[in-house]
Amino acid sequence: MSSIVDKGKQIVEEILEVYPQKSKKDRTKHFEIADEELVNCGTCSIKSNMKSRPGVMTARGCAYAGSKGVVWGPIKDMVHISHGPIGCGQYSWGTRRNYANGVLGINNFTAMQITSNFQEKDIVFGGDKKLEVICREIKEMFPLAKGISVQSECPVGLIGDDIGAVAKKMTEELGIPVIPVRCEGFRGVSQSLGHHIANDAIRDFLMGRRELQECGPYDVSIIGDYNIGGDAWASRILLEEMGLRVIAQWSGDGTINELGIAHKSRLNLIHCHRSMNYMCTTMEQEYGIPWMEYNFFGPTKTVESLRAIAARFDETIQEKCEQVIAQYMPQMEEVIRKYRPRLEGKKVMLLIGGLRARHTIGAYEDLGMEIVATGYEFAHKDDYEKTYPDVKEGTILYDDPTAYELEELAQRLNIDLMGAGVKEKYVYHKMGIPFRQMHSWDYSGPYHGFDGFKIFARDMDMTINSPVWSLLPSQQIAEVSI
Domain named Nitrogenase/oxidoreductase component: which ranges (predicted)? Predict the structure, then answer.
């Protein structure tokens, strides 16, 4: 075993030493140090998709967040009701930066938050009647809304409200789909089950229920891209330039109709495997639609993915694919020449909800940066099996790490950049460690595709090489760290 692997194991062991014996034994299972055998064979031994330890700070979200905040919320021509107390509704309001075309409040409702605002009397007597009133009000206030989803919060499940019966009644009365989504936050161990519940609702109420007037040999669907900062648009540009027709986007800048016609695709292209793989496998089983995962972070992975996608089609698409690559690569080489000398050798640590903990590795490496530690909030076994081939020997991998573990790792690894969610951002600022918000791009983006890489490179340089870090006294950093 190499010295770099031994060093990683020692660091993890020292960090976990502060826990009681039982907690230490449990948390040890959630760490792995990439060695040559692990990188080559990809066998997963790290524990994942398990309950967080009680009493520790976890970065995870809940099933409601996975459904409302990720899968359903970006569908722009529907109104999504946060059914329950106001707290969860506030959490879900416009936090994901899901860009969408349209006029807000007319045919685009992504940045709006509708909540049933449960009170004590609703807990006691039930909220079904209140939900009916809200659905009628939505139909009156937003006549162009194509549908309504009911995203249930914890109390709704605890008191046993029958939102399915209400949704069925309102669908008949209002003449638009009203879809119940039983995504109470207590379900499952993280937001991952919320994705699955949301996918099941799409399957049961929308998938395969609409018809596409004209089908073509080059029809594809973008699955699991939520258009953060315009990501899906940057990806769509490349797919259309190589001759493909995108008939559906699930679900960033997507519509209820697109959910119903995706079964007409010739190929499903999935970006976020964790949140939407259920839908791709379902469409493959029921409609025979093949699917493949792609990665449009950084020019290296984008080129690999474009060629892999083109290989699923005829020579016409393959030739156009090479033309697109030839068109953009001089621009990418120019970006790398500009920023790589400023970022070469910088050490990066990541904690990201779903796919980005592995998908972004190539983009950092295109800029000469090194991933020294990475992991997920809510990954499953297959996520780690896909991650191992992309990391280098000695990389520390972790599942659902605590705030303490992350801070200790960041200091012991002497990292130059932390990439995580908004909950972690200001802690690392106080520690004097440059930070990028890698869930919604820190008010920037897009990061996907060739256009996105220009912005990604600029943002990493702007963050790491900002003069502000030299103004933070080292003594203050030490005190905050302690």
Answer: 62-464
